[in-house]
Structure formats: structure tokens, C-alpha cells
Design a protein that fits this description.
Order of helices and strands: HEEEEEEEHHEEEEHEEEEEEEEEEE
Largest sheet: 9 strands, antiparallel
Number of strands: 22
Radius of gyration: 43 Å
Structural class: alpha+beta
Length: 356
């Protein structure tokens, strides 16, 4: 009986030791450190250069009549916005109306005579030569009528495009010759911006990501620009001209004559370089290290060579990492080589408060 009791106590001790060992392993697994990780990405570097420029209107023209005479009415004043085809000024048209009536009467007469001669020519009663002379006379009269009608139409000066009147040079009643500038107007449906860039940027213009500009008197606003052409020949300073334009939106404050700073944003190639969050780097003995997450959920310390910051939160790594590897971010000084960790899962937008 005593022997049986000793054996029972021995077996109970073994079970207790095994239970404590398993409990210790479970506790170690349960209390593995929680870490956040980030994936090592190939670095795409973005560069930016600034160039001064001045905003210009797309087009500025002097409006003038194609005929001469006294101005009967001016419908606009400086600063007015006019639509394409809108009447800007009108000339006294009495003389041109008379010319049209006279030309119309001559055409009507010749058309009637031509019709009669054409019929006689068919019957061989009129020679072909006389018929051709009559036909030419009728066509000349019709051309004169068309010219008189065009001159009558030209007594109305219309806007060739939509834009703003910048200057009015004459008043009503003044006599003007054809071609004399009555008013000036600008087209601001598009605004031009020109910059001169060095050859290094010109030859790599395919790597340009975007153009934009800012104006110091319009804070916190960035105006997108579009490239529409370039000069293939450098100027005396060895610079190449790029032609940009801006499409104004409703309420846009950018206007012709404003000084702007143009930003040219371009991408650069950095073969073999990657980027990671700044919080993944820690320093030890004046050397930079990261914690690599292994496939067995353990961490390993690795020395890296870092470069410059890509942005406020990221930094590029010149050597020591490969694209696709995972590094620990945060709590780096609390880890040990070979230590097992658990990854903190990112919060799901459908699991608010981690309730699921």
C-alpha cells in the first residue's frame, strides 16, 4: 500500500511538471510582443525645380472695321466681357446700303438679259461670242453685288472670340478709315505661361510628372499647367523654352500680367534603392539598423545604409534591404534577435472599435 502511494505521487509529479512546461510555452506564445510591420517598397524619387514666369493672355487683337466711314454706335466700354460674335461697334451704313441696292438692280437687269440671250444662243440666233460676253458681264455684276453686301456686313464690328475689352480708341461720330484700331480685346479662355529650362531637364522632359504654378498674392492655391509645346532651339543662354497654358475655372484669380513661380515636378530613377517608414530605423553604436520579420514570425537585426528622406514619413535605403521584405515599425529597442512576435492587424473600416 505504501509502495502504491509512492508511485502515485511520482506520476502526479510528472504530470504536474509537464503541465507547467506546457503552460509556460502557451504563456510565452500568448505574451509574444505585438508589432506593426511595413513592406519594403521600391523607391520612386520625385524632384522639383522652380522657374519664374509671367502670366500672359492667349491672344490680344486690335479690332478694326474693314470699311471706312463715321462710327454710328459703340456698344462696349473698357473692362466689358464680350461673347464671340457680339457687336462691338457699328458704322453709319447708309452709303453701303445704297451700293447694295444699285448693284442688285444691275444684277437683276443682266440676269434677265442673260436669260434671253441664252435662249437665243440655243436656237443659234446669237453667236457664241456674244453669249459668252453676256455671261461674263452678269457674273461680274454678281461679284460686285457680293462685294457690296460684304461691305454692308462689315459696317458691324463683331468680336472674333470671347474675351475682355481692354481699350476703346474712338467715340461715336468720329470718322475712321478701314484698318484703324477701334478697340482692343484679349482672350483669357486660356492663359499662357512660358519658362526657360536647362538642357538637362529638356532632354528628360518625358520624365516630367506635372507642371503647376503659384502666385504670392494668392496664398494656398496651386494652379495646374499643361504643356502644349516647346522650342527645339536653345536661346543665347543655352536654355530651352517650354510653352504652358492654364485653363481658368470659375472664380479663378489668376490674370494676365501676374508674376508666378512655376514648379516642374519630375521623377528620377534610383536603381537598387528602396524606401521604408522612418520609424523602422534605429541607431546602435552610430550604425543604422532595422528589425526584419522572418517567415517563422521571429525578428532579426540587420544593418542598413540609409539615404535622404523621401517625405516626412519615409526614408530611402541605399543598401541592406530587398523589395518585398517586411520591417518592424515602432518599439524597436524592446526587441531581441530571434524573438517571436505577433503582427498587429490593420484596423478594418467595417470593424469599428475592434468589436469583431
Amino acid at each position: 500500500m505504501k509502495r502504491l502511494t509512492i508511485i502515485s505521487l511520482f506520476l502526479f509529479g510528472l504530470l504536474l511538471m509537464n503541465s507547467c512546461k506546457n503552460s509556460s510555452k502557451n504563456e510565452e506564445k500568448q505574451y509574444a510582443k505585438l508589432v506593426k510591420v511595413a513592406t519594403v517598397n521600391e523607391m520612386s524619387s520625385i524632384g522639383q525645380k522652380q522657374f519664374p514666369s509671367v502670366v500672359e493672355e492667349t491672344e490680344e487683337v486690335n479690332l478694326s472695321f474693314r470699311v471706312a466711314g463715321p462710327i454710328e454706335k459703340i456698344y462696349v466700354k473698357e473692362g466689358d466681357y464680350v461673347e464671340k460674335g457680339q457687336i462691338v461697334a457699328k458704322m453709319d451704313s447708309r452709303d453701303y446700303e445704297i451700293q447694295v441696292k444699285a448693284a442688285q438692280a444691275q444684277v437683276d437687269q443682266l440676269r434677265s438679259e442673260y436669260k434671253r440671250v441664252a435662249e437665243l444662243n440655243k436656237r443659234k440666233s446669237v453667236a457664241d461670242n456674244d453669249y459668252e460676253k453676256m455671261k461674263a458681264g452678269k457674273e461680274m455684276a454678281e461679284a460686285k453685288l457680293k462685294n457690296a453686301e460684304d461691305q454692308l456686313t462689315d459696317t458691324k464690328l463683331k468680336a472674333p472670340f470671347s474675351g475682355y475689352i481692354t481699350k476703346v480708341n474712338f467715340e461715336e461720330g468720329e470718322l475712321v478709315n478701314h484698318g484703324t484700331g477701334i478697340a482692343s480685346m484679349v482672350d483669357v479662355s486660356l492663359l499662357k505661361v512660358e519658362i526657360n529650362v536647362p538642357a538637362s531637364l529638356y532632354v528628360n522632359r518625358d520624365s516630367i510628372v506635372r507642371f503647376e504654378c503659384t502666385q504670392e498674392d494668392i496664398p494656398n492655391v496651386v494652379f495646374p499647367l499643361t504643356l502644349y509645346g516647346n522650342n527645339i532651339k536653345a536661346n543665347n543662354s543655352g536654355l530651352y523654352k517650354l510653352y504652358l497654358y492654364y485653363s481658368p475655372t470659375t472664380g479663378s484669380q489668376l490674370a494676365p500680367g501676374m508674376n508666378v513661380s512655376v514648379s516642374v515636378v519630375y521623377s528620377t530613377t534610383n536603381q537598387g534603392q528602396v524606401s521604408i517608414p522612418v520609424t523602422a530605423i534605429y541607431t546602435k553604436d552610430n550604425e543604422d539598423y532595422v528589425w526584419i520579420l522572418n517567415t517563422d514570425s521571429t525578428v532579426a537585426q540587420r544593418k542598413v545604409v540609409v539615404g535622404s528622406k523621401v517625405c516626412d514619413a519615409c526614408i530611402n535605403v541605399i543598401d541592406g534591404l530587398e523589395t518585398g521584405e517586411q520591417v518592424v515599425v515602432g518599439g524597436l529597442n524592446l526587441l531581441k534577435p530571434g524573438e517571436r512576435v505577433r503582427i498587429v492587424k490593420p484596423k478594418s473600416p467595417t470593424n469599428v472599435g475592434d468589436l469583431l
